[in-house]
Amino acid sequence: MAANEALTNPLGDGESKEQDPFYQRFKYYKCKKPTPDYSQVIDFYRPENIKDIGYAYTTVPLGAHMDGLSHQQSMCGLIPPAEWKVYTLDELPGFSFIKNPFQPNLHRRILHRCIHDFPTNRNRCNKLYNDFNLDSIQENIWDDSFELMRNDPSLKMKKTLMYKLRWVTLGYHHNWDTKEYSPDDVTSFPSDLAQLSKYITNVLGYHTYSPQAAVVNYYRMYSTLAGHQDHSEYDMEAPLLSISFGQPAIFLLGGDTKDTAPAPMFLRDGDIIIMAGPARKFYHAVPKILNSKDMEALEVSNQEVGQKTLDKNLNKDEKNCTNCLQLEECLSNKTAELFESGDAKQIAGCDVDCAKTEIKNPPGTPGHNPKSVKDSTTPCVCNDEPCWNEATVSDADWVLFEDYLNETRVNLNVRQVFKPGETFPDQMAS
Ligand SMILES: O=C(O)CCC(=O)C(=O)O
Predict the structure, then answer these.
(1) Where in this chain does the record put each Alpha-ketoglutarate-dependent dioxygenase AlkB-like domain (predicted)?
(2) What is the C-alpha to C-alpha distance for residues 136 and 373, in angstroms, rounded to an integer?
(3) In ligand 1, which atom is closest to the CA atom of 249?
C-alpha cells in the first residue's frame, strides 16, 4: 500500500513506480493543485463525448438474456431493466456501466444498510482506534456515534467512530494482510444484498452469480484507493459488482499490468459497474472523490456542451421558443423523442435568460435521476424473498444519513469467492 493512500481499504499494492502509466494517471487525478482537467474523463451521462475523447462505447440492449424474467418486470425499488442505460467500452472488454437504476425507497434502504446495519459488531471493519475493536460497541457504529454525540453535544461527527470508518467486510471476510479468505472467518451474507446482486447480474446475463463476500468502502472527501487487482477470489470468472453511493468519484480502470494507462470515468450516486471477463483482473483505483465545487465546474462545461447539442437537435421552431415555459415544453418533447429512439443524446437545461425557471436535470443530463421521474408501479419479483421496499427510512432519519453522505462516498463491492459447487481447496474431497 502506498503510504499516502492508506485512507481506505489497504488494497493498494504499493508496487507502483513513479513512471508506470497507471500511477502517472492516478497521480494526475489525485492532484488538488492544479485542478486536473476533467474533460478527458469518460462521462456516461454524456455518451456522445466518450467518442470525442477516444473511447468506443456500445449501449447494451437488455431483456433478451434475462433468465426467466420479463424485461418489464422490475425488482422492488429498481426501474424496469428495459429502461436501464447500460454501456460497455471496446477498450475494456468485460466491463459494463449501468446508470443509476435505483428508485428512492431502495436508494435509502440500501444506504441505511451500508451506513447503519453493516458496521456492526458481527462484521469486520478497519481499526478505528488502537485499543478498540468492534466487540466494544453496543450494536452498531452509527448508533454508538450518535449516542456519544447525544451524551456530549460538543462532540462533532469528526470525533466519532463513524468518521473513522473506512471499510466493513461481509460474508467471507477478506484478510487484508494475508490477502486470503478463511473458512474460520465468515458470517452470513445479507440475504437482501444477495438478492439485489443476483438480480443485477442476471439482468446483464450472468445467471449463476453467487455473492459470497462484500467490502463496503467508506470514502471521506480526501480518501483515495491505490491501484490494485482483486485476485483473492478462487473464482476469477464470476463478475465483480460495484455500486457507488453518495459523493461522485473518478474511477480508473486499466489492464492486466500497470503498463496500461487506465481509462478515467466518473461514478455518481447509484451508478453500478460490473467487471467480468478480462476486466475482472484489470488494475483499478479511485484517485479522487469529487466535491460540489468540482462538480459545479463540471456542470458548467456540461451545459456548454449540452447547449451545442441542444442547438443541433432542436429544429427552427423550437429554437424560436421565446420563454422558459415554451422551451421547457420543447425540451421535454424532444427528450422524450430522443429517448424513445434509444438515442441518449444530451439536452442542456434552460438557457441563461430564463435562469429562474430553469429545467432541473432533464433526462440524459448529469444529475438526472430516473427515480424522481417515475416510481415503481411495475410488478415486483421479490416473491418470498426479503423485499427491499418493506422498511423505508423515515424522512427524519434520512436527514442524518444525508448529512453524513454530503461528505462521504460509499462503495459496495460484491464478489463471488468460489467456483460453483466448490469451497476452499483444502476442504474439497479429493
Ligand atoms: O470504490 C470503488 O469504486 C472501488 C473499490 C475497490 O476497488 C475495492 O474495494 O476493491
Answers:
(1) 151-294
(2) 44
(3) 3
Residue 272 has a pLDDT of 98
Instruction: Specify the CATH number for the domain of residue 104.
Output: 2.60.120.590
Based on the domain organization, do 282 and 305 belong to the same domain?
no
What is the domain extent for residue 339? 296-373
| Any domain includes 145 | no
Here the cell at position 120 is: 456492526
Beta strands in 123-277 (DSSP E): 124-125, 167-171, 213-220, 225-228, 240-246, 249-253, 263-267, 272-275
pLDDT at residue 168, as a whole number: 96
Tally of domains in the chain: 2
Q: Are 357 and 325 in contact (CB under 8 A)?
A: yes
| CA nearest to 302, candidates 36, 34, 45, 37 | 45
What global pTM score does this model have? Answer: 0.79
Judgement on whether residues 47 and 27 belong to the same structural domain of the protein: yes
Looking at residue 258, what is its pLDDT?
97
Whether residues 12 and 83 share a domain: the answer is yes
Please indicate, yes or no, whether residues 226 and 359 belong to a single structural domain of this protein: no
Residue with CA closest to ligand 1 atom 8: 413
Residue 365 lies in a domain: yes
Q: What angle do CA 207, 211, 212 make, to 5 degrees?
A: 145
Gap from CA of 81 to ligand 1 centroid (Å): 24
Nearest protein Cα to ligand 1, atom 2: 411
- What residue ranges of the chain have pLDDT lower than 70? 1-17, 63-74, 130-136, 157, 293, 300-391, 430
Q: Is residue 239 part of a domain?
A: yes
65 labeled part of a ligand binding site = no
Give pLDDT tens digits for 370-408: 333 333 344 455 555 556 655 578 888 888 889 899 999
Domain co-membership, 323 together with 255 = no
Which stretches does DSSP call E strand in 247-385?
249-253, 263-267, 272-275, 284-289
Which residues have any ligand 1 atom within 6 Å of their CB?
9, 11, 215, 217, 225, 230, 242, 244, 251, 284, 286, 411, 413
Helix 395-405 vs helix 104-112: angle between axes, to the nearest 10 degrees?
70
The verdict on whether residue 395 carries a ligand-binding annotation is no
Q: Within a domain: residue 332?
A: yes
C-beta of residue 283 within 8 angstroms of C-beta of residue 229: yes
- The pLDDT score that the predictor gives to residue 74 is 65
Listed residue (158, 209, 179, 212) closest to 1, CA to CA: 179
